[in-house]
Design brief:
By secondary structure, the protein is α/β, with parallel strands linked by helices. Helices cover about 30% and strands about 35% of the residues. The chain contains five helices and ten strands, in the order αββαβαββββαβαββ. Homodimer.
Length: about 190
């Protein structure tokens, strides 16, 4: 998606440790017009698939999933990273290691909202090591539901996540795949 790549080149900031900061337009401050185009692109890439629900993980994936859901006309469900009084009753849980935060989370969704008849599209902002997608996929499988596919805004193609997800047989669509990046040379796309 050229519009996204152009925005990454213009406003993305590369930090040491293979970190790409896109917080000025994607996952802290959000450019809604860009998100609208991202939502339309996910709809185009998953056209013809039966999707009944979009699943993401808090917090950065929520805005992306909500805008995309408008084009799919389905609800969004997001996995929470901590149990609260708001999530009562039985839950599906999975462990997820965050590349960005360097920490393991127990993610959960209420069994009330993830049903065996659901056809689920998983959306998220980044794909690095694939742990978030695998954890979300496990929640869907535990519910007896079906993962239709996974949509990622930015995939770090030089890390193992994309290969791992594709080997699982999941239909993966990444809008921008970064082949390599460095502070000195910027970003190169696949």
């Amino acid at each position: 998606m050229q519009l996204l790549k152009d925005r990454i080149n213009k406003d993305g900031k590369i930090k040491e440790g293979n970190v790409l900061k896109v917080d000025s337009f994607l996952n802290h401050q959000i450019d809604i017009e860009l998100l609208e185009e991202i939502g339309k692109e996910f709809k185009r890439r998953f056209e013809g698939e039966e999707i009944t629900k979009i699943l993401t993980i808090e917090a950065s994936g929520i805005a992306i999933a909500c805008i995309a859901a408008k084009y799919f006309n389905v609800p969004v469900l997001f996995a929470k990273k901590s149990k609260t009084k708001n999530i009562a009753g039985e839950v599906y849980t999975s462990k997820v290691e965050s590349f960005t935060h360097g920490k393991v989370y127990d993610i959960m969704v209420s069994k009330e909202f993830l049903l065996k008849e659901d056809k689920v599209l998983i959306l998220d902002d980044f794909l690095a090591n694939g742990q978030a997608l695998l954890g979300l996929s496990k929640l869907v499988e535990d519910a007896g539901a079906t993962v239709v596919g996974a949509g990622i805004v930015i995939e770090k193609g030089f890390q193992v996540g994309g290969e791992l997800i594709r080997k699982q047989g999941i239909h993966l669509e990444s809008l921008a795949i970064i082949e390599k990046m460095s502070v000195e040379d910027g970003v190169t796309y696949r």
